[in-house]
Write a structure and sequence with these properties.
Low-confidence stretches: 3-23
Largest sheet: 6 strands, antiparallel
Distance between the termini: 22 Å
Radius of gyration: 18 Å
Shape: globular
Order of helices and strands: HEEEEEHEEEEHEHEEEE
Number of strands: 14
Structural class: alpha+beta
Length: 238
């Protein structure tokens, strides 16, 4: 199961805690670090590092499994995670953290971009689009994690946070754009899809190619990740 699907499933079951500001300082869980040296689709190197934080929100223990993306040399850093209560972490979080660790395969995700000094990671699950973004910079990845430990309440998740924007593609494009195919109308199995085909930055705007059931759409976002234009074309899903 992908991390995106895990996030959505946990959100539905209530295991994810709501994001809120906090002045608490986090500690890192020993032996929970995993590091990969990878490359973006354009060949630029970056470091993906997974760590687990333990901190307190409103006197309650919180465990956050965090994915951090760091650009060596220029120093841009992005992080996002999944929050668990202490009980949920003991029951589910530890095992999910192990199963979601990457194998350091350079798959070059086309929806993870670093441009103009800013990270932007676009993820979709059905009609839900999330953009995890950050323009923070640090002289080293160690200094970046120190910032995370000092500001654990800023960690974004599928449910929200300081560094994530949410777009409802179904509302933006209309219910007919993602209608269920006739061959699946009477299929009781869950119907999930990944409609995001590609992302490009053109000047200060982001251009997203979205695949619907029978159409494609070009969704243009401004520099603040807000939709400013939508163009649709006919094109069967592949």
């Amino acid at each position: 199961m992908t991390k995106t699907k895990l996030l959505a499933a946990l959100a539905c079951t209530g295991l994810l805690l709501p994001i809120s500001a906090s002045a608490a300082k986090a500690d890192f869980i020993p032996d929970a670090e995993h590091t990969c040296k990878l490359h973006l689709a354009n060949g630029r190197p970056y470091i993906l590092q997974l760590r687990t934080l333990r901190w307190k929100r409103n006197e309650a223990a919180v465990y956050t499994t965090v994915s951090g993306y760091y650009a060596p040399g220029s120093g841009e850093f992005l992080w996002w995670g999944m929050d668990y209560s202490e009980d949920a972490y003991d029951r589910y979080g530890k095992e999910m953290s192990k199963s979601s660790k990457p194998e350091c395969t350079d798959i070059q995700p086309k929806t993870l971009l670093l441009q103009d000094g800013e990270w932007a990671y676009y993820l979709t699950l059905d009609t839900s689009l999330r953009v995890f973004h950050s323009n923070l910079r640090f002289p080293s990845i160690e200094r970046a994690w120190l910032y995370v430990a000092e500001h654990p309440g800023e960690t974004s998740s599928w449910n929200g946070g300081k560094w994530v924007e949410s777009i409802d593609l179904g509302k933006l494009l209309g219910p007919e754009f993602f209608h269920r195919r006739e061959s699946l109308l009477y299929d009781a199995r869950p119907y999930t899809f990944q409609p995001l085909m590609s992302v490009n930055k053109v000047e200060s705007n982001w251009e997203l190619q979205i695949q619907g059931t029978d159409q494609r759409a070009l969704v243009i976002l401004d520099s603040h990740f807000k939709a400013i234009k939508v163009l649709t074309t006919t094109g069967d899903q592949k």
